[in-house]
Design brief:
This protein has five helices and no strands. By secondary structure, it is mainly alpha-helical. α3 (43-67) runs antiparallel to α4 (70-97), α3 (43-67) runs parallel beside α5 (102-127) and α4 (70-97) runs antiparallel to α5.
């Protein structure tokens, strides 16, 4: 990375996207959940917990397709909801406690990308169980 590139990275400011209708519906719930998190907990911990929930969701979804278990589908739904909640909370917690950093944003977006991939694969398997 060139010196000019490092300077541009240092000056970067994240501008969040507009809210979706689901964001507006869930905002008060996410804020309430965020307010329950102690200030000493790192926002990256929330990101990792969310990533674990998203991964478990994908595994449950694929397993439900293989074994025909409705209970695993419910588990997948609960886990993906937990992932979405942790994903919404991590940034709010970081800004609320003054712990927002570029590294935290990278961790959050990296986990989001991984979960997007695993969720996409699990949806493909759910629609066509012959893929397993």
């Amino acid at each position: 990375v060139t010196d000019a590139g490092i300077e541009r990275l240092a000056a970067h400011k994240h501008v969040p996207a507009d809210y979706t209708p689901l964001d507006y519906m869930m905002e008060s719930f996410w804020v309430a959940c965020t307010n329950c998190v102690p200030a000493w907990i790192s926002p990256n911990v929330l990101s990792v917990f969310g990533g674990v929930c998203g991964s478990v969701s994908a595994a449950c979804s694929v397993s439900a397709s293989v074994f025909g278990s409705g209970k695993l589908n419910v588990c997948a739904a609960v886990c993906i909801f937990m992932y979405m909640t942790f994903d919404a909370m991590d940034g709010k917690h970081a800004r609320q406690t003054g712990q927002a950093t570029p590294m935290g944003g990278l961790v959050d977006h990296g986990i989001d990308a991984f979960i997007a991939f695993t969720t996409g694969v699990s949806m493909c398997v759910t629609v066509n169980a012959e893929l397993t």
